[in-house]
Each structure stands twice: as structure tokens, then as C-alpha cells.
Write a structure and sequence with these properties.
Elements lengths: L5 E3 L11 E5 L5 E4 L5 H13 L4 E5 L2 E7 L15 H15 L6 E9 L5 E4 L6 E9 L11 E4 L7 E4 L7 E5 L6 E3 L7 E9 L9 E2 L2
Antiparallel strand pairs: 1-2, 2-3, 3-11, 4-5, 5-6, 6-13, 6-14, 7-12, 8-11, 8-13, 9-10, 9-12
Length: 214
């Protein structure tokens, strides 16, 4: 049984580390891992984000950020381990174990880049075909005052702030999506904030922008 303590999850993979997962319940159920990818793959992926990616600026009332979806980059051999079926199957199983409920093998993988002035206001991402989200941070070291921290909240206002996560590279935070999954991204003050986003979808999803774990 998994509680608010560390549990080892074996992946035996060259891409995923994800060897320690901690389950927490405040302000709502979420999981934290201090090392998501292997060190080698984390460096390869970060280099690609810095120099090989083609970003699209997305502006909405709640946020402004650069985005990309990895289904458009299947030709990039150096990072293809990201969507390897075996890797995704291990990820699905590890996330299911972490949350204590099965998650679907239909997984959308995207990346976000935020630069100075960009942020994400308080929101829930309560979409009908999305069940869980896992956010992996990648960077070369960000100062505590650089801005851009992921925040979990117990409600829809800044007074409800519960947890502010440090931007430790290669760390991951996962949480279920629903009407109470309030979260935000603080305004970036300096530098660039990179994250890889895994969104676990329902088996009923129809839009083909996802990978499938066998």
C-alpha cells in the first residue's frame, strides 16, 4: 500500500528513471518524483528543447507560453525513446501504481517553454477526456527568484496557495484533473522554463494527438 512515503518502482529502462515516487494528499492527491528520466536522456532531451524544437506561441486569457506536441516530431531519432511503446507502458504502470488507480495507455506528450513575462493563471484543466497530468521540469539550474514555479492550490484564489514546487531539473509532479485540481505557474522573471507534459486521456478520446502504450 502506498501512502505519503517513498516507494521504489522498477523500470529497467534507458529512458525512464522514475525510481522513487512519493504520494501526497494536500491540497489534493498528487505524486512527486525527484528523478524522472535517466541523466543521459534528460540531457539529450534538454539539448533538443534548447536547439532542435520548433515552438508555437499560444496565448489565451489564462496563460501565454510556447508549446509543441511530440506527435509532430516522430522523425527526430535522438528523442524517439520519449514515445517508445515499452517506455510508455512502464510509465502508465508506474503512474497507475502511484495514484492507486489505473490510467489509460493513451498519452499525449507535449512540451512548454516559458520566457520572461509569461505565466499560467490559476486554472483546473478540467477537460472531459483528460484524467491525469504529469509535469517534468528540465533546466540547467534556475535561481529561487527566477519565477515560473508550479503551484498547487486548494481553491481558485491566491489565498488558497498550498504548495510551491522548486524547479529542480528532471523532477516530476503528477496530479489528477478535475474541478478541484487548481494549479498555476508563477510569472517567469528571468531565463527559460522548460517542461515536458504527459496528459493521460480516457479510452473514449477521439482526437488522434496521442501515443498508445501497449
Amino acid at each position: 500500500m502506498m501512502t505519503d512515503s517513498a516507494t521504489a518502482i522498477e523500470t529497467n529502462d534507458d529512458i525512464l528513471a522514475f525510481g522513487t515516487v512519493v504520494r501526497r494528499t494536500v491540497p489534493y492527491l498528487h505524486i512527486v518524483s525527484p528523478q524522472f528520466y535517466t541523466e543521459l536522456f534528460a540531457e539529450t532531451l534538454l539539448r533538443w528543447l534548447e536547439s532542435g524544437a520548433t515552438w508555437r506561441l499560444k496565448e489565451a486569457p489564462l496563460f501565454k507560453q510556447y508549446e509543441l506536441g511530440f506527435t509532430h516530431f516522430k522523425h527526430c531519432a535522438e528523442i524517439e525513446g520519449l514515445w517508445d511503446p515499452g517506455v510508455l507502458a512502464r510509465l502508465r504502470d508506474a503512474v497507475s501504481k502511484g495514484f492507486g488507480v489505473p490510467v489509460s495507455g493513451r498519452i499525449n506528450i507535449s512540451a512548454h517553454k516559458l520566457v520572461a513575462g509569461q505565466h499560467g493563471s490559476i486554472h483546473t484543466d478540467n477537460e472531459p477526456d483528460e484524467t491525469h497530468r504529469l509535469v517534468v521540469q528540465l533546466n540547467r539550474g534556475r535561481a529561487s527568484d527566477a519565477g515560473g514555479n508550479l503551484v498547487l492550490l486548494s481553491g481558485p484564489t491566491t489565498d488558497d496557495m498550498a504548495i510551491v514546487f522548486k524547479q529542480e531539473t528532471n523532477s516530476a509532479v503528477g496530479f489528477g484533473l478535475g474541478p478541484a485540481s487548481y494549479h498555476a505557474i508563477g510569472r517567469v522573471r528571468t531565463g527559460t522554463r522548460f517542461t515536458i507534459i504527459y496528459t493521460f486521456l480516457t479510452d473514449a478520446v477521439t482526437v488522434k494527438n496521442y501515443f498508445v502504450a501497449p
